[in-house]
Amino acid sequence: MIPKLSNAQIAWRAAQDIEDGAYVNLGIGFPEMVARYQPEGREAIFHTENGILNFGEPPAEGTEDWDLINAGKKAVTLKPGAAFFHHADSFAMVRGGHLDVAILGAYQVAENGDLANWSVGAGGVPAVGGAMDLVHGAKRVAVITEHVTKKGEPKLLSRCTLPLTGVACVTRVYTSLAVIDIEGGRFVLREKLPSLSLDALQSLTGGELHVPGPVTDLIVPEL
Amino acid sequence: MDKTVGSLAEAVSRIGDGAHVMIGGFGGSGAPIELIHALIDRYRATGHPKDLTVINNNAGNGHVGLAALIEQRMVKKLICSFPRSADPKVFTDLYLAGEIELELVPQGTLAERIRAGGAGIPAFYTPTAYGTDLARGKKIEEFDGRPYVQERWLKADVAIVKAYRADRHGNLVYSKAARNFNPLMCMAAAHTIVQVEEIVEPGGIDPEVVVTPGIFVQSVVCVTDPQQEEDLNRQGAHHP
Question: A148-152 contacts: CB < 8 A, separation 24 or more?
Fold first, then answer.
């Protein structure tokens, strides 16, 4: 059994890189967890596609206001200094390059930064939402993901095999095993679980891991 | 000037077969449930309107609102970004059976296409979807060394939207994040029908806070205590 980080721990690690004052969009589902682990003393402002800046925690059950939801259609609350706006302004924030960070989930990420996270190919009902807009808008696009699929197949590949969400858009990947940057069309290993050898990590990765500098131990608190 | 109409039935009475209809809302937030249900009631009584092309972010949830409209087989084609929800069965079954057409559009592109329709801009370029299946067949052009996809405006015969308050001229304010696509759709339709909780006299809305100016609105109908899709779905409601 290979040791690995829980989803909460991956989210915690990604949260440590969000700067004070950053405007941030978190993808629906797993990436929403990143908001829980904001480091003390830093203030990030969260954006949701449906027209809110600076929303906060979910309300207590039974007190939901369904005019106050996030992109995942979950009820949220407002923080002081929140703002509402319509959908075209919301995506002007996205595509106009005004967001500092977008953190998204992934089916696959390629070493050239291609992302596949919206469709598993033929069959079923396709749905894209705002993912294709976000990957070309935010100044920094990061992915949080398990390092391999449930079947143990690599999710970090030399090229994506599933339909793309965006081309050459991802710059950092936080996985259950490592933190990997995408630079110059290559996977560059920055951090890995201390108990995992480089060879073991490489065997679980579909593209070549480059190690041009020091690799830090990926150490995350129990959550 | 007075754009108010006396009833929901009257408000939707002129929507014709084959109309392109923008329906406001994001999920249940800002969805004009009562106007949609009035349209369904008219169809059940008269057989019209049918063969609608509906533009909405989603494809309905449960068996009320947009999902109920689809369930009645009134919708021929749906243009949306995210046809999934907590209970998407109505749309999913018809789609997988090949009985409803889907045009899938990235959410920001959908918003901008509607905005462009309202602003008289026939096409624009965006980086969104470049290199993906959703850009297939579309014109690509490079600006400052970066490739962009050409997207066309979206317009409609009718928009049915929800706001919080209107004056008799059709100036609108919204409730919180229920604004979403509604102001854009008001601009992009030849005839915009709005349901609001409260209608006030001109001057009753501070001009500084008007979100949709009345020029974009043709009909206003009062629904004082609107239903919310999420609440209806928790009750397992169906329309009719």
Answer: A148/A204
The values of phi and psi at residue B41, to 5°, are: -60, -40
At residue A122 the predicted structure's pLDDT band, cuts being 50, 70 and 90, is: confident
Q: Which of A74, A124, A25, A48 is nearest to B83 (CA)?
A: A124
Return per-residue pLDDT of chain B as tens, 240 residues.
Answer: 999 999 999 999 999 999 999 999 999 999 999 999 999 999 999 999 999 999 999 999 999 999 999 999 999 999 999 999 999 999 999 999 999 999 999 999 999 999 999 999 999 999 999 999 999 999 999 999 999 999 999 999 999 999 999 999 999 999 999 999 999 999 999 999 999 999 999 999 999 999 999 999 999 999 999 999 999 999 999 999
Can you give the residue range of the structural domain that contains A42? 7-217
B131 interfaces chain A, CB cutoff of 8 Å: yes
CATH code, residues B8-234: 3.40.1080.10
pTM for the predicted model, two decimal places = 0.96
Give the ipTM: 0.96
Q: A84 touching B, CB under 8 A?
A: yes
A53: which DSSP letter? E
Per CB-CB distance under 8 Å, the chain A contacts of B182 are: 86
Token pair of A168 as six digits: 């050459």
Instruction: Provide the residue count of chain A.
Output: 223
Which of B104, B175, B228 minimises the CB distance to A126? B104
For chain A, what is the radius of gyration of the CA atoms?
A: 17
Which chain A residues contact residue B65 at CB under 8 A?
none
In a domain, A137, yes or no: yes
Helix axis angle for A87-95 and B107-119, nearest 10°, is 120
Q: What is the pLDDT of residues B115-148, one digit of tens each?
A: 999 999 999 999 999 999 999 999 999 999 999 9
Beta-bridge partner residues of A133: none
Residue of A65, A126, A133 with shortest CB distance to B107: A133
pLDDT band at A2 (very low <50, low <70, confident <90, very high): confident
**Domain of A194: which CATH number?**
3.40.1080.10
Query: Is A68 close to B177, i.e. CB distance below 8 A?
Result: yes
Average pLDDT in chain B = 97
Identify which of B177, B184, B211 has the shortest CB distance to residue A69: B177
